[in-house]
Amino acid sequence: MSAQLLPRTLAPTMLAPDLTQPVRAFIDAVNAGDMTAALAQLSPDAVHHGQIASYRPEGVRVLFNLLRNVLPDMRMEIRDIRVDGDRVTTRVVGTGTHSGAFLGQPPSHRPIVWQMVDVATVRREPASDGSAGRPVVTERYWDVFADPYAWQEIGVIPAIMC
């Protein structure tokens, strides 16, 4: 897959707390295991770009349900957050115990830690009365398992390759 570059954004039309709200709420809902609340933070036509595929909100539900089966105690924590224009960039650290099979690898029952960077575009969703609505994520560039050490912990790639 060829690299997709993010175009430079314009000046923000919302304050930073407004922009970060749907990003933080998404992580909180995933941590609570509430994918309905997580998807409520996304525009219905939002696109998530990962290294393997790009997908819509229902694909996000499938991805995180799969991760929850592999890592039932999965938690994600935002360690850094920055706002530039309408983009919110976060560095997220994920943790969990490899308790379910993944890509043919049996559970190792070992703890896993990984890092990822999430770049989300946030815009106001138009309200039904035509006024500016609530902020939602309209596009994301991220990869939940871009960190090779997570793949090593699961046993998919040997330690010598990390």
Low-confidence stretches are 1-13
Give the N-to-C terminal Cα separation. 21 Å
Order of strands across the biggest sheet?
2-1-6-5-4-3
Described by the principal axes of the CA atoms, the overall outline is elongated
Structure description:
It is a single chain. The chain is 26% helix and 35% strand. It is built from four helices and six strands, in the order ααββαββββα. 25% of the residues are buried. The N terminus is likely disordered. The longest helix is centred in the first third of the chain and has 16 residues. With 162 residues, the chain is of the alpha+beta class. Strand 5 and strand 6 form a beta hairpin. The chain starts with 15 loop residues before the first helix and ends in an 8-residue tail after the last helix. A six-stranded mixed sheet has the order 2-1-6-5-4-3, sandwiched between helices.
